Amino acid sequence: MTRKDIIRELQRRGYEAESKDNIKNGVFFEGVVIGGNQISPIIYTKALIEDAEKRGKNVYNVATKIIEIYEQNEDKEIPVDLLLSKEFCLNHIYIGIQKKSKEAIEKKCCELDPDGLENYLLIKYRADDGVGTMKVNERFLKMVGVTEEEAWDKAMQNICKDTVIESMDKIFSEAMGTPYDPDAEPVIPLYIISSKENIKGASSILNREKLKEFGEKYGVKQLLVIPSSIHEMLISPYTDWMEMDQMKAMVREVNEKEVLPEERLTDQAYIVTL
After folding, report:
1. What are the residue boundaries of the structural domains of the chain, listed by start?
2. CA distance 90 to 151
3. In this predicted model, what pLDDT tens digit does every residue of 93-130 receive, in sequence order?
């Protein structure tokens, strides 16, 4: 069973279906889009095909599943006229961080790791069941009448409004249902920096003012930065006793065991001077 087989079956049932690929942080995904007057989500086919083949199902069953996914999300899509408005773009444009890529999108080198990471522009919007995102390219900016400079400036402003820093102690306390004292000396001097929704929030590390405030609070001029995933980073007041090789080994191990390939950044750890 192939993606072409699925598309033919969808078209046989009267659906306007076509193939569409996507690259998530350097990881390639094959998918199908069911067309319409709205920006439709890509429904990825590899896992559906593998699951069907394991269960002895055929192309009819996979096409039925794709139709179910499409119908569940049909009312949650953004109308094209809204997506292509300048106001919507400027209110919902953000910066993401991912591995360096050859994608034809609006991107720049990431100052945290110019050789391994890149900043890119994306539209991030609330949907009924969470947060949706869409990468931005030059053609899209021209369609909505926004210059590159305006887009990057507004995206940075939106990040600064959206940045949150939370203590790992607080997160563990909430998970265990125990009281959290924000004034107490942290048991784990490690903090998550991300967006309010924790979606594509690793770029919050670009918020220099927030980092300076954090450094002033703990009386340090340098921070240890660990790229947890595309969604968040970990920061800690840097001290001389921290062994960077050990930190990098820890990042590598966590990436291999806990982080999906499409959400990994690098196996590095960084020292950021404020």
Report:
1. 3-76, 80-161, 162-273
2. 7
3. 999 999 999 999 999 999 999 999 999 999 998 766 66
